[in-house]
Specification:
By secondary structure, the protein is mainly alpha-helical. It is about 80% helix and about 0% strand. The chain has helices at about 5-30, 35-55, 65-90. α1 packs antiparallel against α2 (about 35-55) and α1 packs parallel to α3 (about 65-90). The protein is elongated and about 55 Å long. It starts with a helix and ends with a helix. The relative contact order is 0.18.
């Protein structure tokens, strides 16, 4: 597993990518209103904050197997949430 710094960079990148997709959808699609896309953008920011906080406080600090499993689950959850938000953005228009 990569270090926590790399994981935090990945989290920030994915959150920024969601926000970029939302802004592009808002700018390019005339039938998408700001009220439709704003909750998704807020959720992306909350996702970023939640996952960075979870990265900073792993379970079972003394047991390497528990920590490794924790970060694997964290990455899976991060990717699932990212795909969910991007799918919601794509479904708007």
């Amino acid at each position: 597993m990569a270090n926590r710094r790399e994981l935090k960079k990945d989290i920030n990148y994915l959150a920024a990518e969601i926000l970029n997709q939302a802004y592009m959808k808002l700018a390019l699609m005339e039938n998408v209103s700001e009220n439709d896309i704003q909750p998704i953008m807020v959720e992306a920011i909350e996702m970023r904050n939640e996952f960075v906080a979870r990265t900073n406080h792993p379970d079972g600090k003394d047991n390497k197997k528990i920590v490794k499993a924790y970060y694997q689950t964290l990455r899976k959850n991060l990717m699932a949430k990212t795909v969910e938000l991007l799918d919601r953005i794509q479904a708007l228009g």
